[in-house]
Protein: Rubrerythrin diiron-binding domain-containing protein
Organism: Sulfuracidifex tepidarius
Amino acid sequence: MDKYFLALLGEAGATGLAKGFSFRYKVFLHAYEEEKSHWNYFKNFRRSVLESPVFYTFLIIGILSSILGQSAVKFINRKAEEGAIDFYKKNFESNSVEIMQILEQEFGHLSLSYGDLRDQ
């Protein structure tokens, strides 16, 4: 499969999750803005009719997991961010400034999985 297509849909999902998490945990608002910028970056390479359905599906997952509490949000966020980091490391060149910036931001999002979300 095309790495840009997978990245596009992955960032659409990550944007939805961060937006869903942010309804209860405001610390995710910054992550939402960054994920949205990642999504927009990959829109320059590919477009798909699946973007909106993926975004809204993960938005609902984010809202529902927020209802379950911090441990659910941290677990889902950790799995999503670890997957994104692994994907970028395996599929994209490490000499790309944009990809390195995205990776750095993904590590920042991963750090939200540790500590109290209400205190940040």
About this structure: The chain has a mean pLDDT of 93. DSSP finds five helices and no strands in the chain.
